[in-house]
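sorry to bug you again but im stuck and you know this stuff better than me. what follows is a protein written twice so to speak, once as letters and once as structure tokens for the fold. mainly i need to know what kind of three dimensional shape the backbone takes. anything you notice is useful, everything is just below:
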Amino acid sequence: MSKRPSTPIYSSEVYLMACKQFDRAADAISLPEHLRDRVKHPRRAVVVSLPIRRDDGTVALFEGYRVQHNLSTGPAKGGIRFHPDVTLGEVAALAMWMSWKTALVGLPYGGAKGGVIVDPAQLSEAELERLARRYMRELLPFIGPQVDVPAPDVGTNERMMGWMVDTYSDHVGHLAPACITGKPLSLGGSQGRREATGAGVAYLIARYLEDMRVPMAEATVAIQGFGNVGGEAALALVRRGARVVAISDFTGGYFNAGGIDVAKALACVASTRSLAAFDGGEPITNEQLLTLDCTVLVPAALERVITPEIAPRLRCRLLAEAANGPTTFAADRWLEENRPDLEIIPDVLCNAGGVIVSYFEWIQNLENYYWTRDEVLEKLFRQLEQAREAVERQRAKYKFSRRLAAQTLGIQRVADAKAARGLYP
């Protein structure tokens, strides 16, 4: 295992967690020493200052990041999050996971991620537009259809992607929809993109419940995080016949043994931007939701919510990681050693639906030929199934955990590409 310490500029708990996962996977596949640091550490990081004029005439300065982890397998790909707790280390970890994810599901991309330290709820729509456009303006030298293709993430949405597309297009002198995915349909967005991640989560849950011989109609589901991913996953699971018994967001959670009215909850979020006013269940905390007795637990919020303290209290049978990095390294090792009965769909597989349909959107933009929603979802499920089968083959062949199987597949493919390209003198 490489003894080189983690790069200090990325130092954070979540980045160290991603590095530990990499080191374990690299040892498992005996990755050559001369490749380890090249595959592990980000290729490039950009830090930008973002001054904007507030509605009251004052000027506020925000800080933003873009980390491109891997460019050896294609243009970088990854979301942009607007959140008050964004750090460079977090963005670097998310970019690393995206490298593994895109390789695992067979996309010609590298991994990237971006973020701005801001609470979007504290900005007016006009201020948010100025910040989104300024962020894209500062990153113009590093963004483009064949260089780095961003997308929405926590705190951003398709409207903001539309502003960024316009900023980039104004710079190059023509509409360039392939520079960003997750856009409005009117600007070249893809049918099915908004629900892609949640629909993919629901598809994989259904497939693994089949393997476990649990009928969907008998499955109870608890979802932590009721944003785009959690909300769309809940909707897709209900349509497949499951019963969603608990949901939550940053304001708290709700439990209803008879089943949450998902449509009502989505309407509440659409009108008030949170679940705070929802009256369709008994109030519970986010921690209580994680430890509910249920068939499927779906962490769909932020990283590192399943800790070594929470792991022994999990009472689900299937853990579907819709968020990136929701289970800490130590908690994952505890579960692996003490809960062999608990099936886990690791994040690099579970939430890959979003980047897969982002790839479809990019292809449609480049070809200027567009598919129907049914065509998009059919292609999505086919590609997820191929990745699932590859993970299960890797797991059976080497007796790995499902997480280790998925990570080693992705990391090996990135390493193979770097080895094939060689080292520039």
